Amino acid sequence: MSANQKNPVLVIVQLSGGNDFMNTVVPYTAGIYYDSRPVVGLKEDEVLPIHDTLAWNPHCAALQAMYDEGDVAVVQGIGYPNSDRSHFRAMDIWHTCEPIEIGAEGWVGRVIRELDPRGQNVLTGVSVGKGLPRAMAVPGVPVTSFDNLDNYGLLTGIEDERQRTEALEIFKGMYNAGVGTGIVMEYLSQTGLNVIQGTDELKKAKAGYRSTVEYADNAIATSLRDVARVHLAGLGTRVFYTQHGGYDNHANEVPDHPRLLSDLTGAISAFFQDLRAHNASSEVTMLVFTEFGRRIRDNASGTDHGSGGGAFLIGDRVKGGLYAEYPSLDPARWVHGEDLEHMIDFRGIYGTVLEQWMGLDPTDIVGGQFEQIHPYQTTA
Fold it and tell me: What is the pLDDT of residues 132-142, one digit of tens each?
């Protein structure tokens, strides 16, 4: 339990496409970084130093400020053995914790089932954004999903049905090819209308919200503002899930990646400012992850799919700092001669959050016991 005795809450932010970790937390004094990235590499005099070898991308200034305050844990080199470079398969592995077999259940759905085994509160797990993430899909476990809270509950019955159909179609389109129609259709048939649960409770989140914090006009800021509104309404939600897309920067990385990082980190900063203004931040941990990192060498306009990525744990109760190890830049240790190696298994980071923050046994949820880090000042 967190310090104010409220139930611990987990907010998950998925960076879809494979965020370039090397250009997020930059090895700015390593000559091989500049040799390998003549196009997308950041200049040494423009980054925001963490210490004498690593620095923040200058467009992460909002997150750097939170890091300097001790509220951001950077997980370096996160991944799993024999990283898969396919978006569908890699994300499916992160969503189900099954790197070898095709998983039938999402890990977040298993968390929701543990928290609310009888499915009494359809708002225990809430997805904000288009399409239901596979991580939340477990047959028989209800999940509430909406795209935009300002429109939610204001639609006609026909439009509500169209929104529901669109969400289901996105779900099918994302996962049919990667995991097979059987698993997808089994989930949809058993879950049915529970995929989107229209309830009067969400109207309270809109009606009762007041804030002086200004969120930027972009997708991730809007989503995190909606997360804040639902959390502040006290509806019993324990797990939120939202997504920020666009990180598949094979080309145009120089203009696109800075914009994405600026939108993301500004939204995260505004979100926590909002919660703190309402005395509702100490019960929240945020996990930010992506399906893989990018390759060490650029391709003249961007970077291709790689491994050895990064993740962030953010919150008032987090002990900020660097966790695990930054992958070696020694070419002798590059995976396949071109990738960063992974230094810690992502299932151990899930386990860290579940055991140390949510107070759950992670073994069955993540499929085993994995090395954890210790980023919390107190356990949940």
Answer: 788 998 888 88
Q: Are 148 and 120 in contact (CB under 8 A)?
A: no
> What integer pLDDT is reported at residue 372 of this predicted model?
98
Q: What is the pLDDT of residues 163-200, one digit of tens each?
A: 656 665 665 565 555 555 555 555 554 444 444 555 67
Amino acid at 233: A
- 364: Cβ–Cβ under 8 A, 6 or more apart, which residues? 110
Residue 211's φ and ψ, nearest 5 degrees, are: -155, 145
All domains of the chain, ordered by start, with CATH? 9-366 (3.40.720)
**C-alpha to C-alpha distance for 106 and 139, rounded to whole angstroms:** 10
- Give the CA dihedral 63, 324, 298, 23, nearest 10 degrees: 10
Displacement of CA 112 from its chain's centroid (Å) = 17
Closest by alpha carbon to 76, among 46, 51, 99, 95?
51
pTM recorded for the entire structure: 0.91
